[in-house]
Amino acid sequence: QKEVEQNSGPLSVPEGAIASLNCTYSDRGSQSFFWYRQYSGKSPELIMFIYSNGDKEDGRFTAQLNKASQYVSLLIRDSQPSDSATYLCAVKPARGGGNKLTFGTGTQLKVEL
Amino acid sequence: DAGVIQSPRHEVTEMGQEVTLRCKPISGHNSLFWYRQTMMRGLELLIYFNNNVPIDDSGMPEDRFSAKMPNASFSTLKIQPSEPRDSAVYFCASSFIAGAYTGELFFGEGSRLTVL
Lengths: 113, 116
Description:
Chain A has 113 residues and is mainly beta. Chain A has strands spanning 4-5, 11-14, 19-25, 32-38, 45-50, 54-58, 61-66, 71-76, 85-92, 102-103, 107-112. In chain A, strand 7 (61-66) and strand 8 (71-76) form a beta hairpin. In chain B, the strands form three sheets. In chain B, strands 2, 4, 5, 6, 9, 12 and 13 form a seven-stranded mixed beta sheet that branches.
C-alpha cells in the first residue's frame, strides 16, 4: 500500500462547478496534511494545509480532514480554467518521523469552458 | 526576495557521466530538501538537511547519489555514474522549521535531467 494515494485522473469538470479531489494515507499517526498545486512544467506551490479534523476554508478552496478514515480532500468551488493543474496531496509523518513530507502522485484536474 | 534557485535548469548527459545539481535556498530558511519527480513515481524525497546537517537520506536510491550542504546557502546533489533511469526532474525545496512548526516548502524551478 502506498503511503499517500490519489486518483491520477484526469478529473474533468465544467467551469463554475465544484471540483472534488481526494487523498488517502496509510500512517494513522500522521499529523499534518498539505495540498500543493503544480502547473505543467512548473514547481509545486502550497494551496492549503490542515491539521485538525473537519473543514478549513480559504477563498474558493476547502480542505477536509477525517483522521478516523485517514482521508483528506480538497474542494474547489466555482472552478476556473486557471485551476487546471495537477494537485498533490502531502502528508507529514507522525511525531518522530522528521519534517519530511510524503507526496501522492497527484490528480490532474481539467476545467473545461 | 529571491526564491529557491536551482542550476542547471536542463542537463542532458550520457550514461556514466557525473552530474552535479546545485541549489541555493531562501535566505533564513533552515531546512533543505531534495526531491525527484517522475511520471511513474511522483515526487520522492531523496534527502533533507536541517541546519546544514543531513537528517534523513533514506530516499537516496543508491551509492551513486550523494548530497552535501557545506553552508546555509548552498547544496549539491551529485550522481556518479549516471544511468538512464536517473532521468527525472530534480527539485530542491527549502523551509523554515522550528520546534513543532513545520513551514511550507518553497520549491525551486527544478533541474530536468536526461541521461542518454
